[in-house]
Design a protein that fits this description.
The structure is a single chain. The protein is α/β, with parallel strands linked by helices. The protein contains 13 helices and 18 strands. A hairpin with a 2-residue loop joins strand 13 and strand 14. Helix 2 packs across helix 3 and helix 3 packs parallel to helix 4.
Length: 382
């Protein structure tokens, strides 16, 4: 199996690490315009199974040439590139998956379905944690029921040792986090699809010690197209982000005062975007190179089976990998992408075309693959 991983940032590097750790992998090409920050945990494969490729993905000729040399292409590039990347992969007849995160782009990728079927390849967008892992679990919960009443999903990337005032550290792009804090999210209410304000409707979710009680609030993009797929079929469906208690109470007034706005304002004769200033000022204070992170996840699906109330709850807490220096966010997100690519090639994701994870990824082998990597998802009946 030969893989092209696009994006040599944290998630792409973790994806490459996991692929290189698999016995069936013949080679991985890790491609990016900037290869100056490839992490040390990949050093053991340099000059062997790992090739580093300097690539401008907006150069479609060079991109297509790189894709045609692979059996599968996995994108950890910023989401706004994913529609073009999928288009080039389908043209080349090569399996494709990405981390996604933008529902409109997923719908654009869905337009490639007929061409992908004709080429007998699979295209799977939104293959991270949320969207991604949570979609696979939620779909499995829905399949187990005769009638599904509610799907509630909670995910958060957090520091193991929280520090005030935000009790947060950067575990992926701060710009991406702020997008989710300022964009409305799709939910199902009374079976109808509506949008709700980010950072709203706070509730609490309890995880085993030492994580304890976390707060949850609405953010955008966490469950991909599922509210569209299940509109009129499920009464309640929602995704919320997890943080330590008190986080939203600080971020809401910051947002309402305009400090996260993207429209320029004039300061001493200069036009500046408040959000860029916020990121420049706050980002370094939330970046902790020696910090250790965790990912907390809960998916709960309730309804009826054989006329009786039934349901399933999945819960996971994954932590920084001390041995290899791989963060929990990198493990859960990058490994989810790599597992999807492996399952595309070995036939466990079989249906040709463009499908989101909830539509095509079988839950049992997916969860088993995560467990092999030490990412353990606990399942209980509710």
């Amino acid at each position: 199996m030969r893989f092209l991983v696009i994006g040599a940032g944290m998630q792409g590097s973790a994806c490459a690490f996991d692929l290189l750790s698999q016995p069936g992998t013949k080679g991985v090409v890790l491609a990016d315009r900037d290869l100056g920050h490839v992490p040390a945990f990949l050093d053991r494969w340099k000059g062997g199974a790992l090739d580093l490729l300097r690539l401008d993905i907006q150069d479609h000729q060079a991109l297509e040439a790189a894709i045609r040399r692979a059996d599968s292409v996995l994108s950890a590039a910023p989401y706004h590139f994913n529609a073009d990347l999928a288009r080039v992969a389908v043209k080349a007849g090569v399996h494709y998956a990405d981390l996604g995160g933008n529902t409109e782009i997923v719908f654009a990728q869905k337009q490639l379905d007929a061409q992908a079927r004709k080429s007998r390849i699979t295209v799977v967008p939104d293959c991270g944690v949320a969207p991604g892992m949570v979609n696979v679990l939620a779909a499995e919960g829905i399949r187990r029921l005769d009638e599904t009443e509610s799907v509630k999903i909670f995910v958060g990337g957090l520091p193991q040792q929280p520090e005030p005032p935000l009790n947060y550290m950067v575990v992926y792009s701060l710009a991406g986090v702020l997008d989710y804090y300022t964009s409305p999210g799709w939910v199902l209410r009374d079976g109808k699809r509506i949008q709700v304000e980010a950072l709203s409707e706070i509730e609490h979710v309890v995880f085993p010690y030492p994580v304890g009680k976390l707060e949850a609030f609405h953010t955008a993009g966490g469950i991909s197209t599922m509210p569209f797929t299940y509109e009129g079929k499920i009464r309640t469906m929602e995704y919320k982000t997890l943080r330590y208690p008190g986080h939203a109470a600080i971020l809401r007034p910051i947002r309402e005062l305009g400090l996260l706005a993207t429209e320029p304002v004039e300061v001493d004769g200069c036009r500046v975007r408040p959000r860029e200033v916020f990121i420049a000022a706050v980002g370094p204070r939330l970046t902790r190179p020696q910090g250790r992170d965790l990912i907390a996840l809960q998916v709960e699906v309730r309804g009826k089976k054989d006329g009786r109330p039934s349901g399933t709850r999945w819960q996971m807490v994954d932590r920084y990998d001390e041995k290899n220096g791989v963060t929990a966010m990198m493990r859960t997100t990058g490994y989810s992408l790599s597992i999807t690519g492996l399952m595309q090639l070995d036939g466990r994701i079989a249906a040709a075309g463009v499908h989101t994870p909830d539509e095509c990824v079988p839950a049992a082998p997916y969860v088993e693959e995560l467990a092999k990597r030490g990412i353990v998802i606990e399942e209980t009946r509710v």
